[in-house]
Amino acid sequence: MTAPALVLLGHGSRDADGVEEYWALAEVVRASAPDLVIGCGFVELAEPGVDEAIDKVVAAGASEVVVVPLVLLAAGHLKNDGPASMARARLRHPGVRFRLARDLGIEPTVLSVAEERIRAAAGDTDPETLGVALIGRGSSDPDACSDLWKVGRLLADNRGLGMIEPGFAGVARPNVAEAMERCRRLGATTIVVSPFFLFTGLLVPRIMAQAAQWAQEHPEITVRGGEHLGPDPRLARLVLERYREALHGDVRMNCDLCTYRVQLPGYEDKVGLPISLTPHGDEPARGKRRPRRAIRTPAPAPAPELQVRRGRFLPSAAASAEVPAIEVRGLSFDYPDGTAALSNVDLTVRRGERIALLGPNGAGKTSLVLQLNGVLTAKSGEVLISGTAVGPRTLKQVRRKVGVVFQDPDDQLFTPTVGRDVAFGPAHLGLSGAELDERVAEALSYVGLTEVADRPPHRLSLGQRRRAAVATVLAMHPEILVLDEPSSNLDPAARREFADLVKRLGMTTLLVTHDLPYALELCQRAVVLDHGQVVADGPIREILADTGFMSAHRLELPAGFNPLGG
């Protein structure tokens, strides 16, 4: 039985060197799979086109064709053109089966090649003083842009490459100069500009020209240019893996980078190990089994005493108490597909209040929170933060006042150490030297993490990572703190520690949560959203005790929990 044909789909380029590198990688793929019928084609800018390549392998007798995109991170262009080429091919060849494989993506082989290119440029530079500006193409597609940040995080973790700052050649921000400037402000004295490109093209020389211009303006910094990935033979093996996946299914677990499937620096001993579902972790259970009889529950261990230096995280004395911290007036918002997310929402939050924002999934909680710092723009109505209306001209000012702590702290911690994560925001505001160090020490001290400033975030427990995420926000000295599901996945001790932290802050806090007992512990007032409207606003204990209201809005307390019981 003849194996399905393989078509290598390139993006195409006006640069002859970039097209030549595509053909070089194609030749390595052919040499690695001599029995396969392999065709080559481009989406645009080079010949032959993908339609011609497909027609050619079908004319050679292929009854099944797998198209593998030779791109690192698929953006909207390929997401549209890849399926479109498949649709055209099915119309032209109704008796042939077509499959579209996924892009090369965030995969250990890709990371290894990128790491080698960075190391070659960095030489023997001390990682403590090394910064890497990892520059991608740039896209209006949020998936492609966010994937570059993931690549940067994975390259920064435990590889000794210094700090990694992603940037883009165009369309998205930060640009090349801004990524290099972030490295400088975070203490880098040597910066490697590393193009995260599979093939060269017009953009790679442009990136280096922009880097050279920045270097002329900062003679105190050593700037080195890194190589793009290029037609590395290891990538040819990855192309054939994508071909196999398209035919036989994806054998990945959670992702290509699962520590239980492949070797990653620092996790080599985890390859192939099952995930432990027991409370004692990976170690075998120890001790003798107790007889089945009544036993006295031991008293809970006292909460660990956190070494805390009191910071300046209280309502601003300069701000008038008469001006609400948050004021929402007649706010309505629709998503691009026309779905109404918020409808005529009114809300006032006084300074120093701690409020629980409750509601079922899809109620509009996230849509409301993202209006507070201008991530989403209202269809009608207005939002005022400490009296300042949120709008295009006030975004910078407003975002300094509103700090958001995400549900997953790993979305907020992305540099090699906790200290650098906390320094990132203040450094971007222009702080440096002793002033920056003081700001970092203050925030870490307040959350009780001073001793882990030099530790990689992934070496912390989830509770510690969540407190570290809070420190990154506190370092910006915001007036308002938004916490998104702060208790999710925390063990009882970590829940208690985090609750104590929130109570100490004394600042205006908006708690977005489904954890109703936690909300009751931390807040006296609750605002309930449902179908984009405020359906209740009042004392949280009274709202939670109204069983009819709770049932009508799909809010449910844990079995046996009595909100009136104290």
UniProtKB/TrEMBL annotation:
The species this protein was found in: Kutzneria albida DSM 43870
Signal peptide: none
Keywords for this protein: ATP-binding, Cell membrane, Lyase, Membrane, Metal-binding, Nucleotide-binding, Translocase, Transport
Protein name: ABC transporter domain-containing protein
Subcellular location field: Cell membrane
Molecular function, one GO term: ATP hydrolysis activity
Region spans: Disordered: 275-298
Family: Belongs to the ABC transporter superfamily.
UniProt main location, coarse: membrane
One GO location term (cellular component): ATP-binding cassette (ABC) transporter complex
InterPro entries xref list: AAA+_ATPase, ABC_transporter-like_ATP-bd, ABC_transporter-like_CS, ABC_transpr_CbiO/EcfA_su, CbiX-like, ECF_ABC_transporter_ATP-bd, P-loop_NTPase
Domain ABC transporter: 326-556
